[in-house]
């Protein structure tokens, strides 16, 4: 049986995982090559690792509001205090040009009379990217390649809560193609599908920020959400979209408003608050869209629903 420290260290250095061993106080007593390399590649000071305290580093991150640091600290302490046998944490660690995820694993072992804790960080990016792809497919409308209704529902709720917390305005527009049945009847369903794809491609160009989305609301109806955007700002964007959709010059010769494709829009804006329900906003946008349709189509009807105290 080989009982050589160097031999065992060399074995650990061959592992792609980053391995660090800490004692009960959080002092780092061993790191492998994977840890050293990761630190160097990511500009962390690994040179003086013997002087570092893993628990202090996690605590510092947690105190700075880092949620992952806080969860890691809690988990490691739970293992140190023997409240659980092991701790696992999946977390993102994206670099500027690459998406990355890691799995942290903490397990204890006893050496002589003392306990030590092996903390490994395994790169799980490949699996996470595959999961993201599956998730994306579940959220995307097959025909138009933009988000579907299900994703819109969850996004709106998230963005609503964020804007409510930050006291920021939120705008929501429902866009319905005018006389789309006539377009289908005149040029065929396939041409109708092509039209829906072209419209979606334009909407995509106007939803670039993380707080914006466009989605297919149903049939020939689309929805746009703009976080931190008031009625005035949203109206400018919607007018630009309407103009660009006109520029597509998609034939709909039997349509009354125009011989080329037009749209009707209901646009509602509000600063989310407790006295206003998210469903009311969607209903209000729908009512405004109905108003635009009954007023002759090819129109944008907008309303600012912000409650003034
Ligand atoms: N080609 C195609 N047509 C669709 C799709 N989904 C819904 N439609 C059609 O969209 C049409 C919608 O018709 P209506 O609800 O009467 O609306 P409209 O003709 O646009 O009339 P207004 O809304 O009053 O302007 C129907 O003919 C549906 O069959 C789709 O994925 N592809």
What does this structure look like?
This protein has two domains: 123 residues, PAS domain (Beta-Lactamase); 165 residues, Alpha-Beta Plaits (2-Layer Sandwich), CATH 3.30.70. It has 309 residues and is an alpha+beta fold. The termini are far apart. A five-stranded antiparallel beta sheet has the order 2-1-5-4-3, with helices on both faces. Strand 4 and strand 5 form a beta hairpin. It binds guanosine-5'-triphosphate. Guanosine-5'-triphosphate binds next to strand 6, helix 7 and helix 8.
Tell me briefly what this model is:
By secondary structure, the chain is an alpha+beta fold.
Task: Offer a few descriptive terms.
single chain, binds guanosine-5'-triphosphate, 10 helices, 309 residues, alpha+beta, 23% strand, 2 domains, Beta-Lactamase, five-stranded antiparallel sheet, Nucleotide_cyclase, Alpha-Beta Plaits, Rev_trsase/Diguanyl_cyclase, diguanylate cyclase
Question: Mind sketching the topology for me?
Answer:
Blueprint: H1 5-13, E1 18-23, E2 28-31, H2 33-41, H3 54-63, H4 67-80, E3 87-92, E4 101-111, E5 114-123, H5 125-139, H6 149-166, E6 170-177, H7 180-187, H8 189-205, E7 212-218, E8 221-227, H9 231-247, E9 263-270, H10 278-294, E10 300-304
Parallel strand pairs: 9-10
Antiparallel strand pairs: 1-2, 1-5, 3-4, 4-5, 6-8, 6-9, 7-8
Helix pairs in contact: 3-4, 7-8
The structure holds guanosine-5'-triphosphate (GTP).
